[in-house]
Amino acid sequence: KLAMGMLQPNEGQILIDGKRPGPETKAITAYLPDANYLFKWMRVDQQIKYYEDFFADFNRSKAEAMLTRLGIGMKQKIKTLSKGNQEKLRLLLTMARDAKLYILDEPIAGADPAAREFILDTIMMNKPKDSTIFLCTHLIADIEPILTHAIFLRNGQIALNAPVQAVKEQEGKSLDELFREVFKW
């Protein structure tokens, strides 16, 4: 929320491509919040058109290809989709943008193991080559195989900021094991 300019920091600053969050950074940032924001009264094709009108970097053909893979019809009402398919549709709409930065807030929370695999595959297969994905989650074991860098925040402070491979070599344990130690109650 801070990176999207929805909240203001109490101290410090956030820069995206060297700029503070604002209209210029929102144009290059695709954000997937953890809340469901879809217009349930719309059909899938209407939601796609909405995104296409709203985001200059929205790639309709990429969205349609992901829809086909998911098996969701363009004329389906969003309210008739299962919760899982609504989550996948939100991800699909976000990943259909050709953004420089993707901020994904808990994209696999509440998803069953098969859906988690689909979600992670969708993210990795549709990430533009020179973009960055900032994925926020507590489900480290599920995403560890795709991570290149990890940042742990504890009580508003950085507890870890390092390349994943370096953490594994230095600590001699998986990122998930280290996460469980750092955040042990």
What is the radius of gyration computed over CA atoms, rounded to a whole number of angstroms? Answer: 17 Å
Terminal CA distance: 26 Å
Please provide the count of β strands: 5
Shape: globular
Low-confidence region ranges: none
Total DSSP helices: 8
Give a quick account of the main beta sheet: strands, pairing sense, barrel closure: 3 strands, parallel
Order of helices and strands: HEHHHEHEHEEHH
Q: Mean pLDDT, rounded to whole units? A: 90
Helix content: 25-40%
Major sheet strand order = 1-2-3
User: What fraction of the residues are assigned to beta strands by DSSP?
Assistant: 5-15%
User: Structural class of the helix and strand makeup?
Assistant: alpha/beta
Structure description:
By secondary structure, the protein is an alpha/beta fold. A three-stranded parallel beta sheet has the order 1-2-3, covered by helices on one side. A two-stranded antiparallel ribbon has the order 4-5. Strand 4 and strand 5 form a beta hairpin. Helix 3 runs antiparallel to helix 4 and helix 4 runs parallel beside helix 5. 22% of the residues are buried.
Could you name the key traits of this structure?
5 strands; 3-stranded parallel β-sheet; 39% helix; alpha/beta; 185 residues; globular
Write the layout of secondary structure elements.
Elements: H1 23-26, E1 29-32, H2 44-54, H3 60-70, H4 83-95, E2 101-105, H5 113-126, E3 132-136, H6 140-143, E4 149-154, E5 157-163, H7 164-171, H8 175-182
Parallel strand pairs: 1-2, 2-3
Antiparallel strand pairs: 4-5
Helix pairs in contact: 3-4, 4-5
